[in-house]
Amino acid sequence: MKRIAIVGGGIAGLTAAYELELARKRGADIDWQLYEAGNRLGGIVETTHSQGFILEGGPDAWVSEKPWARELAVELGLESELISSNDATRKTYILIDGQLHPMPDRMRMMVPQDLSALEGSALFSDTARQAYANEPGRAKELRSEAPEEDESVASFVRRHFGEEVLTKIGAPLLSGVFGGDVARLSVRAVMPNFVALEREHGSLIAGLQAKARGGRPAQPIFTTLRNGLGTLIDAIVAQLPPERLNLNRSALSLKRQGKRWLLRTSAFATEGRTSKKHFHHVLFATPIDATRALLEPLDPGAAALIPADASSAVLAAFCWAAETASTFSIPQGFGFLVPQTQPTAEPQLLAATFVDQKFPDRAPAGARIIRVFFGGRSADALAPQSDETIAAAAFAQLTKILGPLPTPDASLTTVRGWPRSLPQYEVGHLERMAQLDQRVSKLGNLTLLGNGYRGVGLPDLVRDARNAARECSRVG
Ligand SMILES: Cc1cc2nc3c(=O)[nH]c(=O)nc-3n(C[C@H](O)[C@H](O)[C@H](O)COP(=O)(O)OP(=O)(O)OC[C@H]3O[C@@H](n4cnc5c(N)ncnc54)[C@H](O)[C@@H]3O)c2cc1C
Known about the structure:
alpha+beta; FAD/NAD(P)-binding domain; protoporphyrinogen ix oxidase, domain 3; Polyamine Oxidase, Chain A, domain 2; globular
């Protein structure tokens, strides 16, 4: 019998467990155990329900274009729970000089599909609009000058559209997903579709237009679950035998012993010592810092290839019951982004989501939820503060931007911090990951899962975890 350990009970570890359990039920001669350091499963995916409000502490949706999270949800019987973002009212605003400016319609990140949509936009100066207008005509030059090697997102966006587009929308859009610094993020790792468009068409605008003519029906931008993403975690856990899920059990070290791995974990409180068990295969689905520490004694060179930097996130959600919500209005749309142009003395908001406008059924009829998000240095500065201090700082900034707001319902205000949760895929990331794969495969029967390697979004993590678990459930 092949014994398999999964370390980490976030979406990556749980999905791997689900796939192993499927294989076991089908008769594969395997035995698996999952070890989770905390007292709950789901990791960064965390939904709370209160007074008819659905509050996400981490991710709130996945990108519909990537099919793997949806496939898993359907397989788990959640098809009727799948909902889409309210794209008919989709609008994202950018804060420039204290004013919210809507992004023009039909933008795919920083690339417009329709140049005429830029005409009325006060977001861009004439220079930026001209840079957009010129880009399709520079297709040949852009294709021939594309570097052979990876480059930063900043340099890629600058080559196509110039500095203003980078700072006003490129950087804030990317920071919202990856945290961090566009001057260091790898374009090949975080925007592979745009790199492919450049290779094929030179111009990103022409490339998007050609794709649109290709006629695949537009699908909603985001998909989520009616009762929150925690439903996905609950549905996976419902398929797993509880005796295989070990909570409050941290992996402390891993050692090779002959053909097997010896995994040492913290014991249950009552046992009062550490526990050691042998496994034939180990899947690390831990955050990058934990994985690096576990891998270091086995191969320091491999550990050094794991992304060194990761961005933190601090979120605060504010709720208003229908009666209070009817006394104020906010702009129509999904929310706003704040370009982090100058380092400021006080922590600066990175983004806000108008939750009840972005998704249906997140709040009782007429009620309102606004969730704000700090990233990078601002999140690090706020993280040690109390929830009350963080909520007060977030609310003060929100009112500065949206104008006076009635006091939110204190019993529903939630604050959540995720330190070093978004790994930075820096320039050269894909090459480093290829080297890391090679080194880890030399160690034998060890797999790295989670958001440090091949994508940070839920669909990527689900795809990876399922593939890895299928591979390792093949006994032999
Ligand atoms: C604020 C925020 C918003 C996001 N929004 C979105 C979004 O809208 N859409 C999207 O697709 N993605 C989003 N992401 C990204 C996505 O949520 C994460 O990449 C993903 O949830 C990470 O899952 P994971 O299983 O790799 O890691 P985690 O969820 O971090 O799980 C790892 C688990 O390992 C455990 N662990 C740590 N050390 C040990 C140890 N030594 N032994 C045992 N267990 C250990 C931890 O306790 C944790 O439970 C967001 C991320 C953040 C931070």
